[in-house]
Amino acid sequence: MTVPQYLAALAANTQTTINLARQYSPAELSFRSADDCSIADLLEHICLVDGRTLHLLSSQSGPVAPIKEIYGDKNLHRILVDYKELPRLTELETAALTGLATTPAAFERCFLAQRQQLDSQLASGQLLITNQAHKHPYLGEMTVTDWLYYLLHHTTRHLHDIREVAQQLPPALN
């Protein structure tokens, strides 16, 4: 995928995410069933992962992989979206949430700022797509290209999760 193609995919993914977040009231965002995360938790998690990934990719240190993609677009989509092979949010991760996504506007400010920063860094060449590898806690080493695909698919996975949580919203909240 070229930088312009990625930026188009990033813009579409960003807009889809914002449009979905705007559909929910603060009460709907904070609703939590007995064994699930709230929509606000999932949105905040997306922001946190985007922020950590952007910080990680801004680092110029790390080993260089012999290939451009260790996982690639299709494999990451399969792992994250199709089969959801990585674990869901853990108690530790939800404990780290601060409540930054309690309203659609609050989420949008955080999310858009990070996505615009990524877009700007890629478009300007400040963030280079190299074979440099950075370790993911579950997947191991991933190249910059893999991480960029990861961001898109990670968000998509949690958009599916948000839709599942939304199906459980009590009618009184709708």
Automatic annotation (TrEMBL):
Q: Which Pfam families match?
A: DinB_2
Residue ranges of every copy of the DinB-like domain listed in the record? 10-162
This protein's name? DinB family protein
Organism in which the protein naturally occurs: Hymenobacter polaris
